[in-house]
Amino acid sequence: MSLETVLYSQRPELRDRSDDAFDDVWPEYNMHGDVMNEYWGSLYDDFSDFQFVLYDEDGDEVVAEGHTIPCKWDRSAQGLPAGIDGLIVEGFALKREGVRPDTLSALAVEIPPRHQARRLSAVMLDSMRGIAQEHGFANLIAPVRPSWKDRYPLVPIDRYVRWTRDDGLSFDPWIRVHQRMGAEILKPEPHSLIISGTVVEWEKWTQMVFPETGEYVFPKGLAPVTIDIDTDKGIYWEPNVWIAHRVPTS
């Protein structure tokens, strides 16, 4: 398999080919972020040099997609954006105001289930570090969505992130991928991405019924959703973990 990192600015036609390829990467509820949905579609036009695919030349196939955005960061945990929602808002604001960024942040790595056995996650992160290097950024940060957090939705993210194995690496497989590449955990982010909707919408997204007001665990949720029958509202805050990579100097 011959894989190549291709920016959408280099081959914009690949976007049409990849639109349907990633439909089954995310659970349905995760496609309805209040803030993320406002900005996501504009990434391809406003930041096309920072959106890319992993392209299999031999099979003429897009096998993974990566999303990043330039930002500013003072290299402290306190100076990180307010989750992935705050990150994308700040990234677009910097571009609008003409402020020079100094850091690249990951937004998402999307690998369809049929390609997930190929161990492409580290390849995608390495591509992100390469993009950061090309633009002169010394750091790549990432609001990581822990891959096993949905197994423990009632455990607060600040406790979950401290769980380790006997070898000292994180309990979480996706965080371990970052650590093996030399990344450092900076801090947990309990309120990273907000998703709100009506009760009916949440019932559709989760294939559940919410008979009364309360907090509910739901399939593939990283934390409970809070349902309020009186206001006809469901609110979910997805937690992330901020991680930082040093980018090799050229």
Major beta-sheet overview: 9 strands, mixed
Low-confidence stretches: none
Q: Strand-residue fraction? A: 25-35%
Distance between the termini: 27 Å
Please give the oligomerization state of what you see. Answer: single chain
H and E order: EHHHEEHEHEHHEHEEE
Number of helices: 8
Mean pLDDT: 94
How would the global form be characterised? globular
Structural class label: alpha+beta
Radius of gyration based on Cα positions: 18 Å
Report the count of strand segments: 9
Helix content: 10-25%
Question: What would you note in describing this structure?
Answer:
With 250 residues, the protein is α+β, with helices and mostly antiparallel strands. 25% of the residues lie in helices and 28% in strands. The protein has helices spanning 14-18, 36-39, 43-46, 83-97, 121-134, 157-160, 173-180, 199-206; strands spanning 3-7, 51-56, 61-71, 103-110, 139-144, 184-197, 214-216, 225-228, 233-246. Strands 1, 2, 3, 4, 5, 6, 7, 8 and 9 form a 9-stranded mixed beta sheet that branches.
